[in-house]
Amino acid sequence: MTWANRIEGISGSPVTGGRKLAGGDLGGAALVEFADGRQWVAKEGALVLHEAGMLRAISQTGAPAPTVHYSENQLLLMDYVEADGAKGWESLCKALHLLYKPRDAPYGWYDDYAFGPVVIPNAQSDNWPDFWAQNRLLCHGEKVDGSLTRRLEDLAKRLPELLPESPPPALLHGDLWGGNVLFHQGRLAALIDPASYVGHREVDAAMLTLFDHPPASFFAALELDAGWRSRQPVYRLWPLLVHLRLFGHSYRGAVLAELDVLGV
């Protein structure tokens, strides 16, 4: 059975066209067009079932995410969401307030995830600094050079001084950069490509500052806790370390700069 035949059997409508979609560096999505006018996005791989669960979790909060139609046998089919890039930071803020409603859950997720070959450990914990130390810093130890390993170990020891022990557990998008935030006609249309887990909502804010420049009014409307800016370097280290492992030396300077700011 061909790929198109399989999708036709699931959708109940003939496939009339499609194309590869532009995406992030780890890519991998295609637009599928049907005779009845519907447009879906198809993704294949070992982790698409996990992605489907994250998208459903986001939708359940009331924040917009593509509707998942199928997620079995390494195939994910979901609605295509039109986007024109006309930003609407206020609507994103409102959606994040829905996403971040405190929940009765440990930090972490029910399973690990991955960015390409880089595993994202999500072992659950009731102690936030310990979760961040084990799953977002020390997990890189043997994958980076020795000097970085030692600095990450020193930082991990200091986390109880730098991070709150038990911030309200919130569902995070987990990879909240501009490419994963779809705007259309000045409003948020959908959050896509999540790497979700339960954690401190300031993590998503840090990710948004790496490659994007939200206005000050956006962060004010998020109503983050006092001192949030001082914690941003700790949280930015995680995606920077992932990028260092994925894309190499060009990200080393950014990693070192955050460690310098933190004094380790």
TrEMBL record:
Domain of life: Bacteria
Keyword set, alphabetical order: Kinase, Transferase
Pfam family for this entry, one: Fructosamin_kin
Keyword Oxidoreductase tagged: no
InterPro entries, per database record: Fructo-/Ketosamine-3-kinase, Kinase-like_dom_sf
Keyword Repeat: no
GO molecular function per UniProt: kinase activity
UniProt record similarity statement: Belongs to the fructosamine kinase family.
Stated name of the protein: Aminoglycoside phosphotransferase
